[in-house]
Amino acid sequence: MKVKYIGTQYLGTAFEADKEYEVISLEKGWYRIMTELEEDYLFPPECFEVVEE
Length: 53
Fold this sequence. Notes:
There is one protein chain. The chain has no helices and 5 strands. By secondary structure, it is mainly β. It has one domain: Roll (SH3 type barrels), CATH 2.30.30. It has a 5-stranded antiparallel β-sheet with strand order 4-3-2-1-5, with no helix packed on it. Strand 2 and strand 3 form a beta hairpin. It is globular, with a radius of gyration of 10 Å. About 15% of the residues are buried.
């Protein structure tokens, strides 16, 4: 699944605006995503817009 970040909390450190990110896995309803810091973390789905299922 590909998502685009629409939140504000992590922008500038972990995500770039309007860039798509691959969801590595879905864990307890949260998305595991590789960030711009080249580390994967869990993030709440409400911070993202699904671009591709």
